[in-house]
Amino acid sequence: MAQRRWLQTVARHALPLISSKPTSSLKPLPHLLAPISLKSLLSPKPLQQFLYTDLTLFHTRSFSSNSRDDSENEEDDGEEGEEEEEDYDSDNNEAEVDDVTVSDMKREYSAEEKEAEAAAIGYKVIEPLLPSDRFFKNREPVFAVVQVGSHQFKVSNGDCIYVERLKFCEVNDKLILNKVLMLGTSTQTIIGRPILPDAAVHAVVEEHALDAKVIIFKKKRRKNYRRTKGHRQELTRLRIADIQGIEKPEPKVDQKQKRAAVKQEEKVAVAA
Predict the structure, then answer these.
(1) Which residue intervals make up region (Disordered) (predicted)?
(2) Is the pTM of the predicted complex or chain greater than 0.90?
(3) In the structure, what pLDDT confidence band is assigned to residue 62 with cuts at 50, 70 and 90?
(4) Which of 16, 119, 174, 202 could make a disulfide contact with 241, Cβ separation 3.0–4.6 Å?
């Protein structure tokens, strides 16, 4: 198809040379190496003599007999160019935001800054958990409502919760969750205003993980704008070890079990 169009343009410019009265409206092609002669056109291999040497001379042209179509195409090209500029600006803004977040993550914090940011989120790092520590206790009939960041959780001993990624803490670190909003047992409930200053919830960092992928799709109608992105939220898994700040009720002992234990002791004594 391209060779056919090229031959048509060559024939148009060669007609004045062949005819006795050449027209002055047609100008010679600037990218031809030599003037076109009749012998060159009648040769068996005309294409080998008119090869382009400079690739920059190639340009696209819409072959249309209607000038209105050309104007509409130019308007469409202008609108597409504006949309591409807007998309490019939005992509640049997103890239700048990403660069800022990456620089914040790479910034080195002092010990005071780490403690201040952790306190603002609602926790405090104590020390790493040692193998000899007996940190976890049996389940007790106590619950607490704690706030970590902007989320609230109802927890009790032995529970496992997932919170947003906590900075400045590693796996097997002991934490104290300071923002305790409420404590409760089967007999009493203590509500903070807004927090309880004497209450604390001890936890251990078990894992840093990623949540399931979420697809973000954006579209603007009739604007040729579509963006698809994926996101996986960084999470931290905490294991609740102890709740302090309230009197814990003594575990109830079933009378039937107590009587059965006494009877077994008597049987052992009689057999001896």
Answers:
(1) 63-109, 249-272
(2) no
(3) very low
(4) 202
| Most confidently modeled range among 19-28, 65-74, 76-85, 106-115 | 106-115
- Which residues are 161's β-sheet partners? 238
Q: Over 70: is that where the pLDDT of 86 sits?
A: no
Handedness of CA 134, 139, 141, 147 (dihedral sign): positive
Determine the residue type at 59: H
Radius of gyration from C-alpha coordinates of the chain: 40
Residues 180-218 have pLDDT tens digits of 999 999 889 999 999 999 999 999 999 999 999 999 999
Q: How many beta carbons lie within 10 A of that of residue 69, not counting itself?
A: 11
Phi, psi of 48 (to 5 degrees): -70, -20
* Number of residues in the chain: 272
241, 204 contact by CB (below 8 A): yes
